[in-house]
Amino acid sequence: MQSRLPIRTDSPLRRALVFGAVALVPVLLYLAYELGRYRAGYDVREALAARAALRAQISELERLDHEQRVQLAALESAGIGQTRERAEVSRTIGELQAQVARQAQDLAFYRGVVGDSGQSPVKIQQFKVQATATPRRFVLKLVLGRPVRPEDMVGGALGVTVEGSEGLLPVRHELADVTVDKKREIPFNFRYLQSIDVEIDIPGVFRPERVTVELRPNRKGAAPLRQTFLWNPEPA
């Protein structure tokens, strides 16, 4: 008795239609996703244009920052060989350092918006110098924050340098020179905000002109933040 084997015909057209339907599913899902975002008020073109504008702003800020740093370096070099004009050069350097610090803060903000890396995970959100009832004693009041969304704790150390002059000579004092307990740095550890008060004594005839604060996060690969503020004490 002869057995009968079933014979199936392969249809290339049917197979192509099946493959086409499978390939079309991701496209339809993406279109549905974009339609949902559009109905929610999200415009891809506007988002791309805004991102391009922010990147242009970053480029301009980087150009200004480079020019100011070149000018600052030239002034610092000029200040080395001059004696009588050192005090004036020192004040000018301080103003330029403060301007560079503000530009760096703006760069950190815009880089955070567009997702650029390399910024410090901490920032100086607020700074002021508060006078006290004791002559030549002041309190540096800082509020530390995060430039981007805080996902975990951040810790590190804070350093302070007070720059100014004694007569015609530029002078700088580190944190250990102006604090009673001779601290070289102050630790910080927070997630959202942290307030830090640093009590300092201004020595002798030293005339302070600016304060440089450096934040050194202990996170691997995190960039330190260095910012300069003009000396402008508020009354007690």
Task: Please describe the topology of this protein.
Blueprint: H1 12-39, H2 44-80, H3 86-114, E1 123-131, E2 137-145, E3 154-166, E4 169-174, H4 175-178, E5 186-190, E6 194-201, E7 207-217, E8 225-230
Antiparallel strand pairs: 1-2, 2-6, 3-4, 3-5, 3-7, 7-8
Which key features would you list for this structure?
8 strands, single chain, alpha+beta, 4 helices, 5-stranded antiparallel beta sheet, 3-stranded antiparallel beta sheet, 236 residues, Immunoglobulin-like
Structure description:
This protein has helices at residues 12-39, 44-80, 86-114, 175-178; strands spanning 123-131, 137-145, 154-166, 169-174, 186-190, 194-201, 207-217, 225-230. Strand 3 (154-166) and strand 4 form a beta hairpin. It is elongated. It is of the alpha+beta class and 236 residues long. Strands 3, 4, 5, 7 and 8 form a five-stranded antiparallel sheet that branches.
Q: Please tell me how large the radius of gyration is.
A: 30 Å
Order of SSEs: HHHEEEEHEEEE
What's the assembly state of these chains? single chain
Taking the alpha carbons of the first and last residues, their distance comes to 115 Å
> What structural class results from the helix and strand content?
alpha+beta
- Tally of individual helices: 4
- Low-confidence segments, given as residue ranges, are none
